[in-house]
Amino acid sequence: MPVTPSAKPKTEPLTGVEACARGAVEAGARLAVGYPGTPATPAMEYLLTRAPQEMRVEWAVNEKVALEIAAGHSWAGQRSFVAMKMSGLNVASDALLSVATSGTRGGLVLYVGDDPGMYYGMVEQDSRLWARLAKLPLVEAGTPQEAKDLTRAAFEVSEAAETPILVRGTSTTANTLAGVTLGSPQRDHRQSSVPFDLDRYTKAGAARCLRQHADTLRRLERAGQLLASWNSLTLSGSDLGIVATASVWGYVAENLGLFPEKPSHLRVAVLNPLPDAEILRLLEHCARVLVVEELEPYLEERVRALASTLPRPPTILGKREHLLPQVGDLDPDLVASALAALAGRETPAPPRQPEPPPPGPTWAPRQLTFCPGCPHRSTYFALQQAIRRAGFSPDEVVVAGDIGCTILGMNPPHRLCRTEVAMGSSIALAQGFTYAGIDRPVVAAIGDSTFFHAGIPALLNASAQRVNLTVLVLDNSYAAMTGYQPSPGNFRAEAGAVANPLSIEELARAARVRRVRKALPYFTRRLTRILSQALGSPGVNVVIAEAPCVARLPRRNVVPYRVRPERCTGLEGCAPSCLESVGCPAMDLDETTGRVAIDSARCLGCGLCAAACPQRAIRRNLKARRRAR
Fold it and tell me: Per-residue DSSP letters for 19-64?
Protein backbone atom coordinates (compact mmCIF):
# COMPACT_ATOMS: atom_id res chain seq x y z
CA MET A 1 0.00 0.00 0.00
CA PRO A 2 1.58 3.36 -0.99
CA VAL A 3 2.64 5.68 1.78
CA THR A 4 1.23 9.19 1.59
CA PRO A 5 3.97 11.75 2.26
CA SER A 6 3.37 13.97 5.23
CA ALA A 7 2.21 17.48 4.49
CA LYS A 8 4.99 20.02 4.32
CA PRO A 9 4.86 22.43 7.28
CA LYS A 10 3.44 25.79 6.29
CA THR A 11 5.86 28.70 6.42
CA GLU A 12 4.77 32.33 6.56
CA PRO A 13 6.79 35.56 6.67
CA LEU A 14 6.17 37.20 10.04
CA THR A 15 7.79 39.93 12.06
CA GLY A 16 8.92 39.11 15.58
CA VAL A 17 5.92 40.79 17.17
CA GLU A 18 3.48 39.09 14.78
CA ALA A 19 5.17 35.77 15.54
CA CYS A 20 4.46 36.26 19.24
CA ALA A 21 0.79 36.82 18.40
CA ARG A 22 0.84 33.67 16.27
CA GLY A 23 2.30 31.80 19.24
CA ALA A 24 -0.71 32.85 21.29
CA VAL A 25 -3.04 31.53 18.59
CA GLU A 26 -1.23 28.18 18.46
CA ALA A 27 -1.32 27.96 22.26
CA GLY A 28 -5.11 28.13 22.14
CA ALA A 29 -5.51 31.50 23.85
CA ARG A 30 -9.17 32.47 23.92
CA LEU A 31 -8.65 36.17 24.63
CA ALA A 32 -6.25 38.86 23.40
CA VAL A 33 -6.51 42.37 24.78
CA GLY A 34 -4.18 45.35 24.73
CA TYR A 35 -3.68 49.04 24.20
CA PRO A 36 -1.94 50.49 21.12
CA GLY A 37 1.69 51.50 21.50
CA THR A 38 4.53 50.85 19.06
CA PRO A 39 6.40 48.47 18.86
CA ALA A 40 3.72 46.24 20.43
CA THR A 41 0.75 47.40 18.32
CA PRO A 42 1.28 44.91 15.43
CA ALA A 43 0.60 41.98 17.78
CA MET A 44 -3.00 43.08 18.23
CA GLU A 45 -3.34 44.23 14.61
CA TYR A 46 -2.30 40.76 13.48
CA LEU A 47 -4.84 39.09 15.76
CA LEU A 48 -7.68 41.44 14.78
CA THR A 49 -7.47 40.10 11.24
CA ARG A 50 -5.96 36.63 11.67
CA ALA A 51 -7.27 35.22 14.95
CA PRO A 52 -9.59 32.19 14.84
CA GLN A 53 -13.27 32.76 15.44
CA GLU A 54 -13.17 31.37 18.98
CA MET A 55 -10.55 33.94 20.05
CA ARG A 56 -11.88 37.28 21.29
CA VAL A 57 -9.62 40.21 20.33
CA GLU A 58 -10.19 43.77 21.46
CA TRP A 59 -8.56 47.02 22.47
CA ALA A 60 -8.99 48.08 26.10
CA VAL A 61 -9.33 51.63 27.36
CA ASN A 62 -5.81 51.43 28.87
CA GLU A 63 -3.11 48.89 29.72
CA LYS A 64 -4.11 48.42 33.36
CA VAL A 65 -7.64 47.52 32.34
CA ALA A 66 -6.28 45.21 29.62
CA LEU A 67 -4.18 43.28 32.13
CA GLU A 68 -7.03 43.06 34.63
CA ILE A 69 -9.41 41.70 31.98
CA ALA A 70 -6.81 39.09 31.04
CA ALA A 71 -6.21 38.22 34.71
CA GLY A 72 -9.91 37.63 35.29
CA HIS A 73 -10.05 35.48 32.17
CA SER A 74 -7.04 33.50 33.43
CA TRP A 75 -8.47 33.07 36.93
CA ALA A 76 -11.58 31.61 35.32
CA GLY A 77 -9.30 28.96 33.78
CA GLN A 78 -8.85 30.29 30.24
CA ARG A 79 -5.69 31.30 28.38
CA SER A 80 -5.13 35.04 27.83
CA PHE A 81 -2.69 37.18 25.83
CA VAL A 82 -1.96 40.86 26.57
CA ALA A 83 0.09 43.32 24.49
CA MET A 84 1.46 46.78 25.32
CA LYS A 85 4.58 48.90 24.94
CA MET A 86 7.04 49.50 27.75
CA SER A 87 5.43 52.74 28.95
CA GLY A 88 2.11 50.91 29.04
CA LEU A 89 3.65 48.44 31.45
CA ASN A 90 4.12 51.37 33.82
CA VAL A 91 0.38 52.01 33.65
CA ALA A 92 -0.37 48.34 34.27
CA SER A 93 2.23 47.94 37.02
CA ASP A 94 -0.17 48.38 39.93
CA ALA A 95 -2.21 45.44 38.71
CA LEU A 96 0.89 43.56 37.52
CA LEU A 97 2.50 43.33 40.95
CA SER A 98 -0.74 42.27 42.58
CA VAL A 99 -1.69 39.69 39.93
CA ALA A 100 1.84 38.28 40.16
CA THR A 101 1.35 37.39 43.82
CA SER A 102 -1.94 35.62 43.08
CA GLY A 103 -0.63 33.74 40.06
CA THR A 104 -2.68 32.22 37.28
CA ARG A 105 -4.94 29.29 36.44
CA GLY A 106 -5.24 29.57 32.66
CA GLY A 107 -2.03 30.61 30.94
CA LEU A 108 -1.41 34.38 31.01
CA VAL A 109 1.28 35.81 28.73
CA LEU A 110 2.02 39.53 28.52
CA TYR A 111 3.95 40.81 25.51
CA VAL A 112 5.80 44.05 26.25
CA GLY A 113 7.55 45.99 23.48
CA ASP A 114 10.71 47.80 24.60
CA ASP A 115 12.22 50.51 22.42
CA PRO A 116 16.03 50.83 22.80
CA GLY A 117 17.06 53.80 20.69
CA MET A 118 13.65 55.43 21.14
CA TYR A 119 12.40 55.05 17.59
CA TYR A 120 8.82 55.57 18.74
CA GLY A 121 9.06 57.99 21.64
CA MET A 122 8.50 58.04 25.42
CA VAL A 123 11.08 57.13 28.08
CA GLU A 124 13.86 54.71 27.15
CA GLN A 125 13.29 52.06 29.80
CA ASP A 126 14.19 48.44 30.41
CA SER A 127 11.20 46.23 31.24
CA ARG A 128 13.44 43.50 32.63
CA LEU A 129 13.57 45.58 35.81
CA TRP A 130 9.78 45.33 36.13
CA ALA A 131 10.05 41.55 35.92
CA ARG A 132 12.62 41.51 38.71
CA LEU A 133 10.46 43.79 40.87
CA ALA A 134 7.28 41.77 40.26
CA LYS A 135 9.18 38.45 40.57
CA LEU A 136 7.75 37.32 37.26
CA PRO A 137 9.41 35.15 34.61
CA LEU A 138 10.57 37.13 31.57
CA VAL A 139 11.78 35.71 28.26
CA GLU A 140 12.97 37.27 25.04
CA ALA A 141 13.62 35.85 21.59
CA GLY A 142 16.24 36.57 18.97
CA THR A 143 14.35 35.51 15.83
CA PRO A 144 10.70 35.47 14.72
CA GLN A 145 10.68 31.66 14.76
CA GLU A 146 11.94 31.62 18.32
CA ALA A 147 9.44 34.34 19.23
CA LYS A 148 6.55 32.19 18.04
CA ASP A 149 7.81 29.01 19.67
CA LEU A 150 8.80 30.70 22.92
CA THR A 151 5.43 32.45 23.27
CA ARG A 152 3.60 29.17 22.70
CA ALA A 153 5.78 27.48 25.31
CA ALA A 154 5.23 30.38 27.71
CA PHE A 155 1.53 29.50 27.93
CA GLU A 156 2.37 25.94 28.95
CA VAL A 157 4.86 27.11 31.57
CA SER A 158 2.45 29.77 32.82
CA GLU A 159 -0.09 27.07 33.64
CA ALA A 160 2.42 24.55 34.98
CA ALA A 161 4.07 27.11 37.27
CA GLU A 162 0.82 29.05 37.85
CA THR A 163 2.41 32.41 37.10
CA PRO A 164 2.04 35.15 34.47
CA ILE A 165 4.96 35.31 32.04
CA LEU A 166 6.37 38.40 30.33
CA VAL A 167 7.61 38.11 26.75
CA ARG A 168 9.90 41.06 25.99
CA GLY A 169 10.49 42.21 22.45
CA THR A 170 12.72 45.10 21.44
CA SER A 171 12.07 47.29 18.41
CA THR A 172 14.75 45.40 16.47
CA THR A 173 13.39 41.93 17.16
CA ALA A 174 9.78 43.12 16.84
CA ASN A 175 10.39 44.43 13.31
CA THR A 176 12.67 41.63 12.09
CA LEU A 177 10.93 39.77 9.26
CA ALA A 178 11.62 36.10 8.57
CA GLY A 179 9.92 32.93 7.50
CA VAL A 180 8.19 31.22 10.41
CA THR A 181 7.13 27.59 10.39
CA LEU A 182 3.57 27.48 11.67
CA GLY A 183 2.06 24.89 13.93
CA SER A 184 -1.50 23.79 14.39
CA PRO A 185 -3.55 25.85 16.86
CA GLN A 186 -4.38 23.98 20.02
CA ARG A 187 -8.07 23.26 20.44
CA ASP A 188 -8.84 23.22 24.13
CA HIS A 189 -12.47 23.66 25.13
CA ARG A 190 -12.38 24.23 28.87
CA GLN A 191 -15.16 24.78 31.31
CA SER A 192 -14.76 28.13 33.03
CA SER A 193 -15.06 28.53 36.78
CA VAL A 194 -13.82 30.99 39.40
CA PRO A 195 -12.66 29.40 42.66
CA PHE A 196 -13.56 30.91 46.01
CA ASP A 197 -10.03 31.22 47.40
CA LEU A 198 -9.57 34.32 49.55
CA ASP A 199 -6.04 33.38 50.56
CA ARG A 200 -4.96 33.53 46.92
CA TYR A 201 -7.11 36.19 45.26
CA THR A 202 -7.42 38.85 47.97
CA LYS A 203 -4.86 40.99 49.76
CA ALA A 204 -6.65 41.60 53.07
CA GLY A 205 -4.35 40.77 55.98
CA ALA A 206 -0.58 40.82 56.45
CA ALA A 207 -0.26 37.05 56.93
CA ARG A 208 -2.10 36.41 53.67
CA CYS A 209 0.17 38.81 51.75
CA LEU A 210 3.32 37.25 53.23
CA ARG A 211 2.21 33.78 52.14
CA GLN A 212 1.48 35.09 48.65
CA HIS A 213 4.95 36.63 48.50
CA ALA A 214 6.53 33.29 49.36
CA ASP A 215 4.32 31.52 46.80
CA THR A 216 5.41 34.03 44.14
CA LEU A 217 9.07 33.19 44.75
CA ARG A 218 8.36 29.46 44.49
CA ARG A 219 6.44 29.95 41.23
CA LEU A 220 9.31 31.98 39.79
CA GLU A 221 11.78 29.24 40.65
CA ARG A 222 9.53 26.60 39.12
CA ALA A 223 9.11 28.63 35.92
CA GLY A 224 12.87 29.04 35.68
CA GLN A 225 13.31 25.28 35.79
CA LEU A 226 10.70 24.73 33.08
CA LEU A 227 12.19 27.44 30.81
CA ALA A 228 15.85 26.53 31.33
CA SER A 229 16.19 24.72 28.00
CA TRP A 230 15.72 27.99 26.11
CA ASN A 231 19.15 29.16 27.31
CA SER A 232 22.14 27.79 25.42
CA LEU A 233 25.62 27.25 26.94
CA THR A 234 28.62 26.22 24.80
CA LEU A 235 32.05 25.67 26.40
CA SER A 236 35.11 25.63 24.15
CA GLY A 237 38.85 25.36 24.60
CA SER A 238 39.20 29.15 24.72
CA ASP A 239 39.58 31.02 27.99
CA LEU A 240 37.41 33.83 26.60
CA GLY A 241 33.68 33.92 27.20
CA ILE A 242 30.60 35.83 26.05
CA VAL A 243 27.26 36.16 27.82
CA ALA A 244 24.61 37.78 25.63
CA THR A 245 20.85 38.16 25.62
CA ALA A 246 18.91 36.49 22.81
CA SER A 247 17.74 39.79 21.31
CA VAL A 248 21.33 40.86 20.48
CA TRP A 249 22.87 37.44 19.96
CA GLY A 250 22.74 37.91 16.18
CA TYR A 251 25.27 40.75 16.46
CA VAL A 252 27.59 38.48 18.45
CA ALA A 253 27.24 35.60 16.00
CA GLU A 254 28.14 37.91 13.08
CA ASN A 255 31.48 38.77 14.70
CA LEU A 256 32.72 35.44 16.09
CA GLY A 257 35.15 35.31 13.17
CA LEU A 258 37.31 37.79 15.11
CA PHE A 259 38.54 34.90 17.25
CA PRO A 260 40.95 32.17 16.04
CA GLU A 261 39.16 29.81 18.43
CA LYS A 262 35.47 30.31 19.08
CA PRO A 263 35.01 31.57 22.65
CA SER A 264 32.70 29.90 25.15
CA HIS A 265 29.32 31.55 25.15
CA LEU A 266 25.98 31.62 26.89
CA ARG A 267 22.94 32.80 24.95
CA VAL A 268 20.31 33.90 27.47
CA ALA A 269 16.65 33.83 26.45
CA VAL A 270 15.27 33.64 30.00
CA LEU A 271 16.05 36.95 31.68
CA ASN A 272 14.15 36.29 34.88
CA PRO A 273 15.09 34.13 36.64
CA LEU A 274 18.59 34.28 35.22
CA PRO A 275 20.41 30.94 34.68
CA ASP A 276 22.86 31.27 37.59
CA ALA A 277 24.19 27.70 37.28
CA GLU A 278 25.08 28.14 33.60
CA ILE A 279 26.61 31.56 34.24
CA LEU A 280 28.82 30.08 36.98
CA ARG A 281 29.96 27.25 34.70
CA LEU A 282 31.01 29.77 32.08
CA LEU A 283 32.77 31.97 34.64
CA GLU A 284 34.70 29.01 36.09
CA HIS A 285 35.82 28.07 32.58
CA CYS A 286 37.01 31.51 31.41
CA ALA A 287 39.56 34.17 32.30
CA ARG A 288 37.81 37.06 30.52
CA VAL A 289 34.07 37.39 29.93
CA LEU A 290 32.16 40.02 27.94
CA VAL A 291 28.49 40.72 28.69
CA VAL A 292 26.41 41.98 25.74
CA GLU A 293 22.93 43.44 26.31
CA GLU A 294 20.92 46.57 25.52
CA LEU A 295 20.07 49.36 27.96
CA GLU A 296 20.61 48.65 31.66
CA PRO A 297 23.49 46.42 32.88
CA TYR A 298 20.85 44.03 34.18
CA LEU A 299 22.56 40.81 33.14
CA GLU A 300 26.03 42.26 33.67
CA GLU A 301 25.34 43.07 37.32
CA ARG A 302 24.33 39.46 37.97
CA VAL A 303 27.38 38.12 36.16
CA ARG A 304 29.66 40.35 38.25
CA ALA A 305 27.90 39.30 41.46
CA LEU A 306 28.31 35.60 40.66
CA ALA A 307 31.92 36.09 39.61
CA SER A 308 32.70 37.62 43.00
CA THR A 309 31.78 34.30 44.69
CA LEU A 310 34.51 32.36 42.88
CA PRO A 311 38.00 31.77 44.31
CA ARG A 312 39.58 33.02 41.08
CA PRO A 313 37.02 35.28 39.41
CA PRO A 314 37.50 36.10 35.73
CA THR A 315 37.73 39.64 34.41
CA ILE A 316 34.28 40.91 33.48
CA LEU A 317 33.91 43.37 30.62
CA GLY A 318 30.84 45.36 29.69
CA LYS A 319 29.13 48.66 30.30
CA ARG A 320 31.18 49.52 33.38
CA GLU A 321 34.28 49.58 31.16
CA HIS A 322 32.35 51.69 28.62
CA LEU A 323 32.72 49.00 25.97
CA LEU A 324 28.99 49.15 25.28
CA PRO A 325 26.58 52.05 25.78
CA GLN A 326 23.80 52.22 28.33
CA VAL A 327 21.86 54.60 26.05
CA GLY A 328 20.35 53.54 22.75
CA ASP A 329 20.31 50.26 20.88
CA LEU A 330 23.29 48.14 19.81
CA ASP A 331 24.48 47.43 16.28
CA PRO A 332 27.06 45.07 14.74
CA ASP A 333 29.82 47.71 14.82
CA LEU A 334 29.42 48.41 18.52
CA VAL A 335 29.41 44.72 19.35
CA ALA A 336 32.42 44.09 17.08
CA SER A 337 34.35 46.81 18.92
CA ALA A 338 33.55 45.23 22.29
CA LEU A 339 34.48 41.75 21.05
CA ALA A 340 37.81 43.11 19.79
CA ALA A 341 38.49 44.38 23.30
CA LEU A 342 37.65 40.93 24.69
CA ALA A 343 40.17 39.39 22.28
CA GLY A 344 42.77 41.97 23.38
CA ARG A 345 43.27 43.18 19.85
CA GLU A 346 42.65 46.86 20.41
CA THR A 347 41.30 49.39 22.86
CA PRO A 348 38.04 50.52 21.32
CA ALA A 349 36.82 54.06 21.32
CA PRO A 350 34.00 54.84 23.75
CA PRO A 351 30.61 53.77 22.39
CA ARG A 352 28.66 56.24 20.39
CA GLN A 353 26.31 58.47 22.31
CA PRO A 354 23.56 60.61 20.82
CA GLU A 355 25.17 63.69 19.33
CA PRO A 356 23.64 67.15 19.70
CA PRO A 357 22.21 68.60 16.50
CA PRO A 358 24.44 70.94 14.51
CA PRO A 359 24.08 74.66 15.29
CA GLY A 360 22.46 75.42 11.94
CA PRO A 361 20.53 73.38 9.38
CA THR A 362 22.57 71.99 6.51
CA TRP A 363 19.51 71.03 4.50
CA ALA A 364 15.94 72.16 4.10
CA PRO A 365 14.33 71.83 7.54
CA ARG A 366 11.48 69.31 7.84
CA GLN A 367 9.17 70.12 10.71
CA LEU A 368 7.23 67.42 12.53
CA THR A 369 3.72 68.68 12.00
CA PHE A 370 0.11 67.67 11.42
CA CYS A 371 -1.09 66.02 8.21
CA PRO A 372 -2.71 68.24 5.56
CA GLY A 373 -6.31 68.83 6.56
CA CYS A 374 -5.81 67.58 10.12
CA PRO A 375 -8.51 68.97 12.45
CA HIS A 376 -5.90 69.46 15.18
CA ARG A 377 -4.15 72.15 13.11
CA SER A 378 -7.40 74.11 12.90
CA THR A 379 -7.99 73.60 16.62
CA TYR A 380 -4.62 75.02 17.62
CA PHE A 381 -5.06 77.89 15.16
CA ALA A 382 -8.38 78.68 16.85
CA LEU A 383 -6.75 78.45 20.28
CA GLN A 384 -4.10 80.97 19.24
CA GLN A 385 -6.81 83.34 18.04
CA ALA A 386 -8.83 82.80 21.23
CA ILE A 387 -5.82 83.62 23.41
CA ARG A 388 -5.32 86.89 21.57
CA ARG A 389 -9.03 87.63 21.73
CA ALA A 390 -8.87 87.12 25.51
CA GLY A 391 -6.18 89.82 25.70
CA PHE A 392 -3.05 87.68 25.97
CA SER A 393 -0.24 86.61 23.73
CA PRO A 394 0.26 82.87 23.15
CA ASP A 395 3.50 83.01 25.16
CA GLU A 396 1.58 84.17 28.24
CA VAL A 397 -0.87 81.27 28.38
CA VAL A 398 0.34 77.91 29.71
CA VAL A 399 -0.82 74.95 27.62
CA ALA A 400 -0.08 71.50 29.03
CA GLY A 401 0.28 68.92 26.27
CA ASP A 402 -0.42 65.19 26.26
CA ILE A 403 0.57 62.00 24.49
CA GLY A 404 -0.43 61.45 20.86
CA CYS A 405 -0.89 63.69 17.84
CA THR A 406 -2.00 66.54 20.09
CA ILE A 407 1.55 67.08 21.34
CA LEU A 408 2.53 68.33 17.88
CA GLY A 409 1.00 71.61 19.01
CA MET A 410 4.39 72.26 20.62
CA ASN A 411 6.02 72.79 17.21
CA PRO A 412 5.83 75.75 14.83
CA PRO A 413 3.68 77.40 13.77
CA HIS A 414 1.65 76.91 16.95
CA ARG A 415 4.29 76.67 19.72
CA LEU A 416 1.64 76.21 22.39
CA CYS A 417 2.12 72.90 24.25
CA ARG A 418 4.85 73.13 26.89
CA THR A 419 4.76 69.73 28.60
CA GLU A 420 4.44 66.00 27.87
CA VAL A 421 4.61 63.53 30.75
CA ALA A 422 2.32 60.51 30.48
CA MET A 423 -1.10 59.52 29.21
CA GLY A 424 -3.69 61.88 30.70
CA SER A 425 -1.19 64.00 32.64
CA SER A 426 -2.06 67.30 30.97
CA ILE A 427 -5.15 67.93 33.11
CA ALA A 428 -3.43 67.21 36.43
CA LEU A 429 -0.38 69.24 35.38
CA ALA A 430 -2.66 72.15 34.52
CA GLN A 431 -4.24 71.88 37.95
CA GLY A 432 -0.77 72.00 39.49
CA PHE A 433 0.06 75.13 37.48
CA THR A 434 -3.03 76.89 38.81
CA TYR A 435 -2.13 75.88 42.38
CA ALA A 436 1.32 77.37 41.83
CA GLY A 437 -0.31 80.76 41.33
CA ILE A 438 -0.24 81.12 37.54
CA ASP A 439 -2.57 84.08 37.09
CA ARG A 440 -3.10 83.68 33.35
CA PRO A 441 -5.43 81.15 31.71
CA VAL A 442 -4.21 77.54 31.89
CA VAL A 443 -5.18 75.03 29.20
CA ALA A 444 -4.87 71.22 29.13
CA ALA A 445 -4.81 69.85 25.57
CA ILE A 446 -5.63 66.14 25.32
CA GLY A 447 -6.71 63.71 22.61
CA ASP A 448 -9.82 61.56 22.77
CA SER A 449 -8.04 58.20 23.15
CA THR A 450 -5.77 59.69 25.80
CA PHE A 451 -8.78 61.18 27.58
CA PHE A 452 -10.45 57.77 27.81
CA HIS A 453 -7.14 56.13 28.77
CA ALA A 454 -6.24 58.25 31.80
CA GLY A 455 -7.76 61.72 31.52
CA ILE A 456 -11.10 60.99 33.19
CA PRO A 457 -9.77 60.64 36.76
CA ALA A 458 -7.85 63.91 36.43
CA LEU A 459 -10.98 65.66 35.10
CA LEU A 460 -13.02 64.34 38.03
CA ASN A 461 -10.39 65.62 40.43
CA ALA A 462 -10.21 69.07 38.84
CA SER A 463 -13.99 69.38 38.76
CA ALA A 464 -14.33 68.32 42.40
CA GLN A 465 -11.81 70.98 43.40
CA ARG A 466 -13.40 73.67 41.19
CA VAL A 467 -10.11 74.48 39.55
CA ASN A 468 -10.01 77.32 37.02
CA LEU A 469 -8.75 75.70 33.83
CA THR A 470 -9.79 74.87 30.29
CA VAL A 471 -9.65 71.27 29.06
CA LEU A 472 -9.39 71.19 25.27
CA VAL A 473 -10.21 67.71 23.96
CA LEU A 474 -9.05 67.17 20.39
CA ASP A 475 -11.38 64.35 19.36
CA ASN A 476 -10.58 62.66 16.04
CA SER A 477 -12.09 59.23 16.93
CA TYR A 478 -8.77 57.38 16.74
CA ALA A 479 -5.48 56.67 18.44
CA ALA A 480 -4.01 58.07 15.25
CA MET A 481 -0.31 58.27 16.11
CA THR A 482 -0.09 54.53 16.83
CA GLY A 483 -1.85 53.44 13.64
CA TYR A 484 -5.48 54.66 13.71
CA GLN A 485 -6.85 52.25 16.28
CA PRO A 486 -10.42 53.29 17.17
CA SER A 487 -10.95 55.05 20.47
CA PRO A 488 -13.85 54.17 22.81
CA GLY A 489 -15.79 57.02 21.22
CA ASN A 490 -15.44 55.66 17.70
CA PHE A 491 -18.76 54.87 16.03
CA ARG A 492 -17.42 53.25 12.86
CA ALA A 493 -17.78 49.54 12.16
CA GLU A 494 -14.19 48.38 11.65
CA ALA A 495 -11.68 46.01 13.20
CA GLY A 496 -11.40 46.68 16.90
CA ALA A 497 -14.27 49.18 17.07
CA VAL A 498 -16.19 49.34 20.33
CA ALA A 499 -19.72 47.95 20.62
CA ASN A 500 -21.11 50.86 22.63
CA PRO A 501 -19.38 54.16 21.72
CA LEU A 502 -18.91 56.59 24.59
CA SER A 503 -19.52 60.33 24.61
CA ILE A 504 -16.85 62.64 25.98
CA GLU A 505 -19.47 65.37 26.30
CA GLU A 506 -21.71 63.16 28.46
CA LEU A 507 -18.78 62.04 30.60
CA ALA A 508 -17.75 65.65 31.20
CA ARG A 509 -21.27 66.62 32.18
CA ALA A 510 -21.45 63.61 34.51
CA ALA A 511 -18.31 64.98 36.16
CA ARG A 512 -20.33 68.17 36.87
CA VAL A 513 -18.08 70.31 34.71
CA ARG A 514 -19.37 73.87 34.76
CA ARG A 515 -19.35 74.45 31.01
CA VAL A 516 -19.09 71.84 28.23
CA ARG A 517 -19.09 72.95 24.59
CA LYS A 518 -18.47 71.04 21.37
CA ALA A 519 -17.52 72.43 17.96
CA LEU A 520 -16.29 71.38 14.56
CA PRO A 521 -12.70 72.66 14.44
CA TYR A 522 -12.79 73.64 10.76
CA PHE A 523 -15.12 76.52 11.55
CA THR A 524 -12.40 78.37 13.37
CA ARG A 525 -14.42 81.53 14.09
CA ARG A 526 -16.99 79.61 16.14
CA LEU A 527 -14.33 77.52 17.90
CA THR A 528 -12.33 80.68 18.62
CA ARG A 529 -15.35 82.27 20.23
CA ILE A 530 -16.06 79.19 22.36
CA LEU A 531 -12.44 78.94 23.50
CA SER A 532 -12.16 82.62 24.35
CA GLN A 533 -15.27 82.34 26.51
CA ALA A 534 -13.83 79.29 28.25
CA LEU A 535 -10.54 81.05 28.94
CA GLY A 536 -12.39 83.79 30.78
CA SER A 537 -14.83 81.60 32.72
CA PRO A 538 -14.26 80.32 36.26
CA GLY A 539 -14.11 76.63 37.13
CA VAL A 540 -13.38 73.76 34.79
CA ASN A 541 -14.40 74.37 31.18
CA VAL A 542 -14.34 71.51 28.66
CA VAL A 543 -14.19 72.32 24.95
CA ILE A 544 -14.41 69.38 22.54
CA ALA A 545 -13.06 69.96 19.04
CA GLU A 546 -14.59 67.00 17.22
CA ALA A 547 -13.77 65.90 13.66
CA PRO A 548 -12.57 62.52 12.33
CA CYS A 549 -8.91 61.93 11.48
CA VAL A 550 -8.48 62.91 7.82
CA ALA A 551 -6.24 59.90 7.17
CA ARG A 552 -9.26 57.65 7.72
CA LEU A 553 -11.70 59.57 5.52
CA PRO A 554 -12.44 58.72 1.88
CA ARG A 555 -10.88 61.13 -0.60
CA ARG A 556 -13.84 61.31 -2.95
CA ASN A 557 -15.52 64.69 -3.35
CA VAL A 558 -12.59 66.50 -1.74
CA VAL A 559 -12.51 70.10 -2.93
CA PRO A 560 -8.93 71.43 -2.66
CA TYR A 561 -8.05 75.10 -2.42
CA ARG A 562 -6.02 77.23 -4.77
CA VAL A 563 -4.21 80.55 -4.62
CA ARG A 564 -5.43 83.43 -6.76
CA PRO A 565 -2.09 84.87 -7.92
CA GLU A 566 -3.57 88.28 -8.70
CA ARG A 567 -4.48 88.70 -5.03
CA CYS A 568 -1.51 87.00 -3.31
CA THR A 569 1.09 89.59 -2.26
CA GLY A 570 3.67 86.93 -1.33
CA LEU A 571 7.06 88.03 -0.07
CA GLU A 572 6.39 91.62 -1.04
CA GLY A 573 3.24 91.85 1.05
CA CYS A 574 2.31 89.75 4.08
CA ALA A 575 5.53 87.75 4.04
CA PRO A 576 3.35 85.44 3.70
CA SER A 577 1.36 85.04 6.91
CA CYS A 578 -0.66 82.03 5.70
CA LEU A 579 2.48 79.88 5.59
CA GLU A 580 3.69 81.08 8.98
CA SER A 581 0.38 80.75 10.82
CA VAL A 582 -0.93 77.53 9.25
CA GLY A 583 2.18 75.49 8.44
CA CYS A 584 0.30 73.06 6.20
CA PRO A 585 2.51 70.61 4.24
CA ALA A 586 0.28 71.14 1.18
CA MET A 587 1.39 74.79 1.00
CA ASP A 588 4.72 76.09 -0.22
CA LEU A 589 6.37 79.21 -1.54
CA ASP A 590 6.97 79.37 -5.28
CA GLU A 591 10.56 80.62 -5.50
CA THR A 592 10.02 81.82 -9.05
CA THR A 593 7.04 84.09 -8.39
CA GLY A 594 7.55 84.67 -4.65
CA ARG A 595 3.92 83.73 -4.06
CA VAL A 596 2.19 80.92 -2.22
CA ALA A 597 1.26 77.74 -4.05
CA ILE A 598 -1.03 74.89 -2.94
CA ASP A 599 -0.50 71.29 -4.03
CA SER A 600 -4.01 70.19 -4.99
CA ALA A 601 -2.97 66.53 -4.75
CA ARG A 602 -2.19 66.92 -1.05
CA CYS A 603 -4.80 69.50 -0.07
CA LEU A 604 -7.83 67.99 1.66
CA GLY A 605 -9.95 71.12 1.58
CA CYS A 606 -10.07 72.02 5.27
CA GLY A 607 -10.06 75.74 4.40
CA LEU A 608 -7.78 76.87 7.22
CA CYS A 609 -5.42 78.57 4.80
CA ALA A 610 -8.32 80.62 3.41
CA ALA A 611 -9.29 81.69 6.92
CA ALA A 612 -5.72 82.72 7.65
CA CYS A 613 -5.09 84.69 4.44
CA PRO A 614 -5.47 88.45 5.08
CA GLN A 615 -5.69 89.15 1.32
CA ARG A 616 -8.55 86.71 0.66
CA ALA A 617 -6.39 85.21 -2.04
CA ILE A 618 -7.26 81.56 -1.34
CA ARG A 619 -10.45 80.01 -2.67
CA ARG A 620 -11.87 76.58 -3.40
CA ASN A 621 -10.53 74.93 -6.56
CA LEU A 622 -13.81 73.75 -8.09
CA LYS A 623 -12.10 72.75 -11.34
CA ALA A 624 -9.95 70.28 -9.47
CA ARG A 625 -13.10 68.80 -7.93
CA ARG A 626 -14.67 68.30 -11.32
CA ARG A 627 -11.49 66.62 -12.55
CA ALA A 628 -11.51 64.32 -9.50
CA ARG A 629 -14.97 63.09 -10.43
Answer: HHHHHHHHTT-SEEEE---TTTHHHHHHHHHHS-TTSEEEE-SSHH
